[in-house]
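FORM 7B: Structural annotation worksheet

SECTION A. Query
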Amino acid sequence: MRINMSSKVKMLAVLIAANLCVAGVLKAQTIWEDSRSLIYPYLTRMADKGLITLQDVVLPITHTQINEALKTLSNKQASLNKIEKEELAFFIKEYTAPVAPEDTVMQKLSILSKDKFGRWRGVTVGNGNFYMQLDPVAGLNRISGSNNKSITQYGNGAYIRGYLGKHFNFQFYYRDITESGTGIDYDKQKTDIQGVIKKDTNQEVSH
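SECTION B. Predicted structure
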């Protein structure tokens, strides 16, 4: 059975509400960075060079840990090459909060515009006491194999994060990935890729 767009929107709304309710119960909810983020390979390389100490035996790690590592690297830029410095500048823009704790003026709702660090954002609103950021998530991948078999992967979703006061942080990550083609591995038993939920019988799946 296929899930239409209106059903997906309703499902997303329910998941967001459930996530925020859980966060409200936990109060001191910590913002964790998705384990598939590009920040991890970078921090791992920096740890291998001995420039930072990274507690990444178990992923994910928190935004606080990430910002502490980036701050340490900012003080050791003499030990970084040109590409590593450019990556550092990018990640600092990505993970530094766009509003300061002392900001009291509420920012206007901003849609598809750059923040003060020059990063494009989907939706942002808030100040030092309340802040919410929503970024769209999208991707496309084409895999070709033997016997003229191929797979096309495309996905979309949203990443929401923010805080309310000093002790309440929240986040929500949703991504719907669809595969189509003649080379789909439905069982996924010989790979570490997450399994799939089959939506119909025309060789199109979502996970």
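SECTION C. Observations
Confidence is low (pLDDT under 50) at residues 1-5, 21-29. The longest strand covers residues 130-144.

SECTION D. Sign-off
Analyst initials: ____
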